[in-house]
Design brief:
globular, 4-stranded mixed beta sheet, about 400 residues, 3-stranded antiparallel beta sheet, about 20% strand, alpha+beta, 14 strands, SET_dom_sf, about 25% helix
């Protein structure tokens, strides 16, 4: 495995010196990330019993395959893991499946939710919802019981507890309970998915992250808001992600001319006009906690990385375990960006894709993990003022990501 990392680091180093770097640094960083994900997830799929020849073949393919081919393989590798996870969840929760264990006697749940997450200062509280008539019946297990059984079957689960990152805003951290191999899916990033066409419906727009650090952006501009998900729930239910009240910022002081222009162009739109597409989701998903991962402090290293994943909506038997809903009508809309603003420039043709997908995001392990805190490089833009606690893991990567 050491040879894999050594050769990978050498490959990334040579890639950074490519002439394309000066022309399009953001695309270079995207390629580098896909290359890393290809290596990690392919190694995971081959398994720990892989020999040197298998590792050499993975590295060779990574150095020769096109970006499109590597992206496709990463998607297949992630799909394979998610399919296994969904099968395990079915074994645990489906009423017709006989469990090998009696229901666990879990400790009494605390009345109050976790203090804070790594990506936030606060999160909305979660209230239990009654199962709707159209929701399939499942075993009456609590989230804590499902989590323990996933660990028994899959060697690891996740838990929230006081972060080991040494600053006061770290709050609750995300920890892996058990052991996971490099390239494994550690967590799903849950919540409401917004394409650029619907940015103005994100609560708090245009300053959406002022009071909601539970937002994350994919390379394609898709934003996922995890704040409505919170810490999940105790049932399988119809969920639309609109349970958190819309945030309306208080803007004090007189408006300058530029402020008035900003407000005119950036006026928030009422979410009730469109709303999220409600779906039957399993709120007891023990891996839907990616939004609690902390950024590593100085002297610490990240051990996961983000991976955009397009879930095929034809997989209806797996859909309830993907903790996301789409905001809006879901049509493909072409967008153009001018400075800080996105404008519609027409549709992309058909409103319905032949292969519709749900744009999601997962965290993938960049090394073997064992009973430790999950740490994610936030890659905050160095073009804006960053929090005092933020220590760049790689300043150059931050610059390329947001160039």
């Amino acid at each position: 495995m050491a040879s894999l990392f050594q050769k990978f680091q050498k490959a990334v180093g040579s890639l950074a010196k490519s002439p394309t770097f000066a022309k399009d640094p953001r695309h270079l960083q995207f390629e580098a990330d896909i290359n890393r994900l290809f290596l990690y997830t392919s190694y995971n799929r081959v398994g720990k019993d892989a020999g040197d020849a298998d590792i050499e073949e993975i590295i060779d393919i990574a150095s020769k395959a096109s970006l499109a081919d590597q992206q496709e393989q990463v998607q297949e590798n992630i799909y394979s893991q998610i399919k296994t996870f969904c099968a395990l969840m079915d074994d645990i929760l489906h009423p017709s499946c006989k469990s090998t264990e009696e229901p666990l006697n879990s400790p009494t749940e605390k009345a109050a939710g976790p203090r804070r997450s790594g990506l936030s200062l606060a999160v909305g509280s979660n209230s239990s919802m009654k199962v709707s008539p159209g929701v399939p019946k499942t075993k009456p297990l609590k989230l804590s019981e499902v989590s323990q059984r996933i660990k028994d079957l899959n060697s690891y689960t996740l838990e929230l507890k006081a972060s080991q990152v040494p600053h006061k805003e770290a709050g609750q951290g995300l920890f892996i309970n058990g052991e996971a191999n490099v390239g494994a899916i550690i967590a799903f990033y849950p919540g409401v998915v917004y394409t650029p066409a619907y940015y103005r419906y994100i609560p708090g727009y245009p300053k959406v992250n002022a009071h909601n650090p539970y937002l994350i952006t994919r390379y394609d501009g898709t934003i996922i808001n995890a704040q409505p998900w919170g810490t999940g729930g105790e049932t399988r239910e119809v969920w639309d992600g609109l349970s958190v009240p819309e945030f309306r910022p208080n803007i004090q002081g007189a408006d300058t001319g530029s402020d008035r222009v900003w407000k005119m162009l950036s006026k928030p739109l009422e979410a009730t006009r469109l709303g999220s597409n409600a779906e039957v989701l399993e709120r007891r998903n023990p891996l839907a906690f990616a939004h609690y991962a902390n950024h590593p402090a100085k002297g610490m290293e990240p051990n996961v990385m983000v991976c955009s994943y397009d879930f095929p909506l034809v997989e209806k038997d797996m859909r309830m375990y993907i903790p996301n809903v789409v905001f809006g009508r879901g049509e493909e809309v072409k967008m153009k960006r001018f400075g800080s603003f996105w404008f519609k420039s027409g549709t992309s043709g058909s409103n319905v894709s032949d292969n519709p997908v749900l744009k999601t995001l997962v965290l993938v392990a960049t090394r073997d993990l064992s009973n430790e805190e999950v740490l994610l490089n936030y890659r905050l833009s160095n073009a804006k003022k960053r929090p005092a606690w933020y220590t760049p893991v790689d300043e150059e990567e931050d610059r390329r990501r947001w160039s």
